[in-house]
């Protein structure tokens, strides 16, 4: 009996932990599988997985063409080690999840396929290398698959699903855009093709239809404006009307349509994803409650001792004082048990960062109260009370002392350290911005999007890795960089005579090449910025062939039109959510209760001795204010800054409010199959009540 109760507790802890971290892994519920599942989700296992994922990606820095060359044997051993770790992680996952679910999950098949293909490619490449035959490591562009498809990267997969779901609508707009581009290109050919005009480089102007299409596509991005217009504009001022009409239709209207379509579809599918998470969390909490419930009168409840054991398993680092505080919130009337309504909110409670503060008086307040309470003392304490100010002042003082010391001992006359001091002093102006309420909305939005910026950073890394590896295979060695005083042949043409008199060579862009992984990343970053990207495209097309421009167009479509627009969409949604919360000050009843206790829980005011009897040493200490009510001892609780709430959490809270408490929720399979157009189901009781 005791063993069964312990197994139920461990299983319930797995459900609560999944609800807390929004995991939706369908694991097996046998005792052995549950223990393996807890191990699978351990932070050390996740950290090790990410370490080997990024080690596998970083091997491109050491493989040919390498930034820091390592022997082929060394990189091969490291790659095999990474692949074995991935295989072990996948095997571990297969041990905890349902077999039919495992083999139907596409991401598991992708990982296994990537491992098999990588080992095959590595073996073939190694054998050919032994015989002196140069070949292509075609499996390297598949390495981002491991970053995408492991269970830990669910945020990146969500972003990719948003892209996939948005593509159909984008396709229709893109087809209309291409039709407009082709029509304007045809008109340009008829208008300017027979005028015998020349570009600034002395080349024929708008003679070739495909080149016209490319030049006008670049004009949509404004990268070649007004250069592309000048030959026609010099010939006749009326021709400017053609380019003005083109820019209005394609740059301002179609590009805005792209953003509108991306934002509309992203918002729709994001809300569907968040709604699934909300239902999944409710379902898991109910499953945990059903495992631990006992009958109390006419209702089922979870006993206090059982609840404490559960919280200690789910959040072992939580202090006793914090756990007692959570119990006070869940069992407000101190009945000795937690009802269903309070239990299902446990995941929310655990996600709220509560800081325990121990109030103590400053030693001077005890030893010299008159001096500590004097006006000069209050002024000094007011000056150093703000941590940001204290840090800046201390850093500036240290830099000033260091500068004076260096000048006196080493005849140091540089002003660099003093410049740093001045910069640090300027940073204090941030407090002015933070003190204005409307600016706080913007600051809160910027802080709240940081976690999602990491997601889009991972997505950008995936795109960069794929395009960098393709670029290295296609353009490696075609362009070389030479120092300014080099006497090498064709040094001024980046080592390739095909670039003679080109904008690429005249702009001294020779260092922007695909000769190694790091240089490729820099080029892709510059292409993301868009400015002068057509110079890069033309340069690499000159040294390879005109079809090379398709590579740069593809990168622009994927990175700038799709991914950047989705990122902009997220920022818009984040701002709208933050703005609405800022106006309405929406907070859950749980947070309000914690805030009330945080402001009021002190030793001399508590009516229940149990809370303080179980409290440990405080995690933080708070100095008492000399001007405030004197308190020799006590504890208070406070909510960490609301600025650190993620946008996903805020959206999820909105959808959870739409789920009736008496609704036990859908099954796991029904939740996963929810579509964006599905109505929010209600329980029969709620419908009849309505």
From TrEMBL:
GO terms for molecular function: monoatomic ion channel activity. The keyword Transport does not apply. Signal peptide: none annotated. GO terms for cellular component: membrane. Gene3D superfamilies: 1.10.287.70. It is a multi-pass membrane protein. Keywords: Membrane, Transmembrane, Transmembrane helix. Residues 48-268, 387-580 form the Ion transport domain. The chain crosses the membrane at residues 43-62, 68-88, 109-128, 170-189, 238-266, 388-406, 445-470, 550-576. This is Ion transport domain-containing protein. The lineage of its organism: Eukaryota, Metazoa, Chordata, Craniata, Vertebrata. The gene is LOC102062840.
């Amino acid at each position: 009996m005791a063993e069964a109760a312990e197994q139920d507790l461990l299983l319930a802890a797995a459900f609560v932990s999944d609800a807390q971290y929004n995991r939706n892994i369908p694991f097996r519920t046998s005792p052995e599988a549950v223990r393996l599942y807890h191990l699978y989700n351990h932070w050390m296992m996740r950290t090790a997985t990410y370490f080997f994922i990024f080690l596998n990606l970083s091997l491109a820095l050491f493989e040919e063409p390498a930034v820091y060359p390592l022997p082929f044997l060394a990189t091969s051993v490291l790659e095999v080690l990474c692949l074995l770790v991935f295989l072990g992680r996948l095997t571990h996952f297969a041990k905890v999840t349902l077999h039919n679910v495992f083999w139907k999950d596409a991401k598991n098949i992708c990982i296994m396929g990537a491992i098999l293909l990588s080992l095959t490619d590595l073996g073939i490449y190694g054998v050919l290398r032994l015989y002196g035959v140069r070949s292509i490591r075609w499996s390297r562009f598949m390495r981002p698959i491991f970053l995408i498809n492991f269970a830990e990267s669910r945020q990146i997969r969500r972003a990719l699903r948003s892209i996939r779901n948005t593509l159909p609508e984008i396709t229709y707009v893109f087809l209309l855009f291409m039709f407009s581009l082709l029509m304007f290109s045809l008109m340009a050919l008829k208008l300017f093709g027979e005028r015998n005009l020349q570009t600034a480089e002395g080349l024929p102007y708008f003679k070739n239809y495909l080149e016209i299409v490319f030049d006008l596509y670049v004009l949509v991005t404004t990268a070649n404006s007004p250069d592309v217009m000048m030959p026609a504009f010099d010939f006749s001022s009326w021709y400017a009307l053609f380019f003005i009409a083109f820019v209005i239709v394609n740059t301002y209207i179609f590009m805005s349509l792209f953003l509108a379509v991306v934002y509309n579809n992203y918002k729709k599918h994001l809300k569907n994803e968040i709604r699934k998470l909300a239902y999944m969390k409710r379902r898991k909490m109910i499953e945990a409650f059903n495992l631990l419930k006992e009958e109390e009168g006419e209702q089922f409840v979870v006993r206090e001792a059982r609840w404490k054991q559960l919280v200690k398993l789910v959040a072992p680092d939580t202090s006793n004082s914090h756990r007692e505080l959570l119990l006070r919130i869940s069992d407000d009337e101190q009945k000795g048990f937690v009802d269903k309504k309070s239990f299902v909110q446990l995941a929310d409670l655990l996600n709220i960062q509560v800081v325990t503060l121990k109030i103590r008086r400053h030693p001077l307040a005890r030893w010299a109260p008159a001096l500590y309470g004097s006006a000069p003392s209050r002024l000094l304490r007011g000056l150093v009370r703000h941590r940001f100010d204290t840090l800046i002042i201390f850093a500036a003082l240290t830099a000033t002392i260091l500068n004076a010391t260096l000048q006196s001992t080493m005849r140091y006359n540089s002003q660099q350290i003093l410049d740093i001091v001045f910069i640090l002093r300027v940073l204090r102006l941030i407090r002015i911005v933070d003190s204005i309420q409307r600016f706080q909305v913007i600051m809160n939005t910027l802080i709240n999007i940081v976690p999602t910026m990491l997601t889009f950073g991972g997505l950008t890394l995936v795109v960069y890795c794929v395009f960098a590896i393709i670029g290295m295979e296609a353009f490696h060695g075609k362009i070389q960089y030479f120092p300014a005083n080099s006497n090498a042949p064709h040094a001024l043409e980046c080592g390739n005579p095909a670039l003679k008199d080109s904008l690429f060579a005249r702009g001294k862009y020779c260092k922007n090449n695909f000769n190694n992984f790091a240089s490729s990343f820099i080029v892709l970053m510059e292409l993301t910025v868009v400015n002068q990207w057509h110079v890069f495209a033309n340069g690499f097309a000159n040294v390879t062939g005109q079809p090379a421009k398709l590579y740069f167009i593809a990168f622009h479509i994927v990175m700038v039109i799709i991914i950047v627009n989705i990122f902009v969409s997220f920022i818009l949604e984040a701002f709208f959510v933050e703005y609405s919360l800022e106006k309405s000050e929406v907070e859950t009843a749980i947070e309000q209760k914690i805030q009330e206790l945080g402001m009021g829980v002190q030793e001399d005011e508590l009516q229940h001795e149990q809370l303080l009897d179980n409290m440990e040493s405080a995690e933080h200490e708070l100095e008492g204010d000399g001007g405030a009510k004197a308190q020799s001892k006590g504890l208070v609780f406070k909510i960490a800054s609301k600025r650190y709430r993620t946008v996903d959490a805020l959206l999820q809270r909105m959808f959870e409010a739409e789920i009736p408490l008496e609704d036990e929720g859908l099954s796991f399979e029904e939740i996963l199959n929810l579509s964006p157009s599905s109505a929010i189901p209600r329980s029969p009781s709620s419908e009849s009540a309505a």
